[in-house]
Design goal:
The chain has one domain: Vaccinia Virus protein VP39 (Rossmann fold, 3-Layer(aba) Sandwich). Helices cover 34% and strands 21% of the residues. It is built from seven helices and seven strands, in the order ααβαβαβαβαβαββ. The chain is globular and about 45 Å long.
Amino acid sequence: MALRIPKPRKHWTPRYIIDRMAWGLWQKRHPTEPWLVPGAVEFLGQWLRRTDTLVEFGSGRSTRWFAGKVGHITSIEHHPQWHVTVTGQLSQAGIKNVDYVLVKEDEAGYLAPLAHRGEKFDMVLVDGIHRDHCALWAFEHAKPGGLLVIDNANWYVPCGSRSPASIALNGSPPTEMWKQFLEKTGVWRRVWFSSGVTDTLVMFVPVG
C-alpha cells in the first residue's frame, strides 16, 4: 500500500500549529459553546440579555447556546438533513424559544422568510451561506445599540489577520455587496476577535 504524504500548506507555520492546537483544546473544554472565536463567545456571553431577540444565519451549537442567553431566536438553515438533526437536539433539550426555519439554498429563498418582517433585532449573526446578502439585510434590521456579528470575517473584510485566507488590509472585499456593506458601516465601532485559525467581527450598531 502506497504511503500517503500530506500536501504541504503554506499556512501550516509553527505559529499556526500552536494557534490550531489552542483552538482545538478550547473547543474540547467548551463542547456546548458556538464555533466562534473564544474571545467573541466570552464577550457575547456577558453582553446578551434574556430580553434580547436574535437572528442567526446558520445553525448548530450556536442555536442551543444562544437560546439560553436571549428571549427569542429566529434561526435560518438551508441544509435539510442538518435541520432535522438540530431540530431533534432542540426538542431533546426542551428549547422552545427558537423559530427554526428551513429555507431554500438560493439567495432569494435564503432570505425569503425574513423579507417582509419589519422589526429590528438586538443581534444578527452572519454565519451561513450568502453572507454578503445577509450582512446587508442585517444592516437594515439590527437595532440601534445592538450587535451585528460576522463569523470568518477575515474572509470578507480587509484586516491583515494571520488566520489563513485572510484579506490584507490593503485588499478588496470579495464581492460588490461586501464593498457596499463596508461603506455603509465604515464608522461603526467594532471589536475584532482572532484565534489565529479563524476570526469573528462584532460590530456595534450606532444609536441615533
